[in-house]
Write a sequence for this structure.
């Protein structure tokens, strides 16, 4: 999982959260393939692919990574877009922005939890104070799934994105849907990536998809914390 524009007082009106999900037994294979794509484009296998790094010089590499996501049946994405953070009224719900942030993560992940599977969830590190909130997120998700012994949701862990290729992929797709909903067009390379994402997904990135759509699933959050899509 990763996020874009999540800070309360930044200059971004739109915010997005995103999660890449795949079978655990395919995770290593996916990481190896992404490193092979990096090497093919003259990059170190340890190069950290990030939305903020997209440039004209490397756009072909980033498009190749995007195409790989859509071509691999084992990779799926779910994202949530908050179109305008300035309309949030945290005082009304008696919590702060940070608590709301983790409520959004709950909405993001809840739809991906299946009682037939075990789940291992990895979040890109947000700050040094996130550990207790992540433990609370784990507790809320397990309670919602009646998973009191943690048989379904085995782990939620904070990692740095350079350690996990799937988090890098989450960063790219989340950054792209946020960029599209901010109405930005200052970077031709990022615009090209967004247009390719629209083409491959078949969506305009401004409307929610059906909840049942697995490959590229999108929720446009409009103010109800308990919106079930």
């Amino acid at each position: 999982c990763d996020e874009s524009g999540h800070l309360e007082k930044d200059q971004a009106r739109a915010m997005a959260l995103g999660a890449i999900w795949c079978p655990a037994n395919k995770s290593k294979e996916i990481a190896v393939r992404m490193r092979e794509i990096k090497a093919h484009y003259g990059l170190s296998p340890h190069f950290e692919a990030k939305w903020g790094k997209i440039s004209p010089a490397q756009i072909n590499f980033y498009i190749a990574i995007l195409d790989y996501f859509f071509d691999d049946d084992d990779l799926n994405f779910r994202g949530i877009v908050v179109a305008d953070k300035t309309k949030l009224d945290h005082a009304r719900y008696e919590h702060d922005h940070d608590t709301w942030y983790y409520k959004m993560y709950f909405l993001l992940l809840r739809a991906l939890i299946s009682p037939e599977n075990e789940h291992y969830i990895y979040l890109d590190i947000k700050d040094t104070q996130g550990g207790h909130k992540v433990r609370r997120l784990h507790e809320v998700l397990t309670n919602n799934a009646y998973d009191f012994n943690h048989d379904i949701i085995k782990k939620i862990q904070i990692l740095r994105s350079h350690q996990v290729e799937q988090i890098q992929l989450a960063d790219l797709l989340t950054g792209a849907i946020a960029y599209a909903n901010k109405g930005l067009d200052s970077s031709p390379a990022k615009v090209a990536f967004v247009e390719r994402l629209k083409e491959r997904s078949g969506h305009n990135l401004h409307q929610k998809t059906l909840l049942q759509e697995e490959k590229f699933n999108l929720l446009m959050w409009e103010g109800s914390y308990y919106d079930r899509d």
Q: What stands out?
A: The mean pLDDT is 87.
